[in-house]
Amino acid sequence: MGSCCSSSTSSVSLPPPTIHCQAKENTQPRNLPNKVPYDLSASREPTREPFDEGDEEDSVVSPKRHNTRELSYNSRKLRSSTVRRMYGNLKKYALPVDQVFNRDISPDRFVTFTSYEYKELAPLQHEWWIDPTAIDNFQETPSTTMVCGTATLDEQTVFIKRLNRNASSNKLSRSRRILMTEVHVGAKVEHPYIATFLGFCITPYEGLSCVSEYVEGTLLSDVLVNSPQLEWKQPKINWALQLAQALVYLHDQKISHRNVKNDTILVTAKTCNIKLIGCGHAAMESFENHHPPIASEWSAPELLQGTQDISDKTDVYSFGLILLLLDTHKLPFEMEKSRNHHELLMKIVTGSIKPIIPASSPVANLMTECLQYVPTHRPSMKVVYTKLQQIAAQL
């Protein structure tokens, strides 16, 4: 703060250099911008106006004020110690160059048995766990929903289903639940006409993998189309009995397959017997599966409606369609399906369309009972199996 000065130095004497200028007394305080009167009795220090060049002569010595302006992080200078600490933390997460582009970003990257995805499989770990390193020579086969293929386990060819890491989150969640159902069902099922479940494994990169018996065979529908000379006496009645035995066994275990169709029934090449596969959509009391199979013309009307009243009678309806396939060597609703698939499913749900049953078929009456629209009007699989045995004795 400088000393007082004037344009006329002769009329005004300068003060001694050791005496400081005193602030003007009784200076009227300036009003605040919001025009609130200044209160001299207030304990806090009044807010001062910004310094203006025109007020140079009236400038006074003011106490040190705190800067209330908030500083942004960009305006602060980084200390060298802070930079060293930040760099040290980043080094913990550094990856080698060869791992940068092979970095796993799958949802199952950090999955363990304690995580919410697979905690239901923990009780089955000790009996059905397979060492992932023991699986070799995986060869992928075409599949629309999951990654499927054959591999070698203990010098034996096996069939493997695993998650598709490139699928959407919704499809990935559905596939994960289907595989978990296959594990739970396979752990309880052991039947000669059902594909044998061998175990499962979970890896950080591939997620859940379901390992089962490799069935070398052909789809039942393909065998029938390529062999029109087959008769009911041999071998079609045997195939119907084998499939009925498999379903009776599942129903005794309180399991509903819910996905019996031409794609889940194989005819083995060695023994020419039936093998039922595709238990991932099954329903069982000890494990809840929220994902019913994809709607198709093989599904019962109540399954297409999405009602909660789904029982083993759903498999009875699908078994009736399999009997129709065995008799005619044609897929059900083949003519209607070529027009509009969605419209066909709506007609099945409403009951406005029904399969045409040949009157000359030896299983015509049994097909009629199995294909009843109301589930309670259908017989149980035990009754169906008994009637098939009677029909086989008469052929």
Explain this structure to me?
Among the domains are: 95 residues, Phosphorylase Kinase, domain 1 (2-Layer Sandwich); 172 residues, Transferase(Phosphotransferase) domain 1 (Transferase(Phosphotransferase), domain 1), CATH 1.10.510.10. Helix content is 30%, strand content 12%. The strands form three sheets. It has a five-stranded antiparallel β-sheet. The protein has a three-stranded antiparallel β-sheet with strand order 6-8-9. Strand 2 and strand 3 form a beta hairpin. The chain is globular, with a radius of gyration of 41 Å. The relative contact order is 0.08. GO terms for molecular function: ATP binding; protein serine/threonine kinase activity. This is Kinase. Pfam families: Pkinase (PF00069).
Secondary structure blueprint with pairings:
Blueprint: H1 80-91, H2 97-100, H3 125-128, E1 135-141, E2 147-153, E3 156-162, H4 169-188, E4 197-203, E5 207-213, E6 217-219, H5 220-226, H6 236-252, E7 255-256, E8 265-268, E9 274-276, E10 283-284, H7 301-305, H8 313-328, H9 334-337, H10 341-350, H11 364-370, H12 381-394
Antiparallel strand pairs: 1-2, 2-3, 3-5, 4-5, 6-8, 7-10, 8-9
Helix pairs in contact: 6-8, 6-12, 8-11
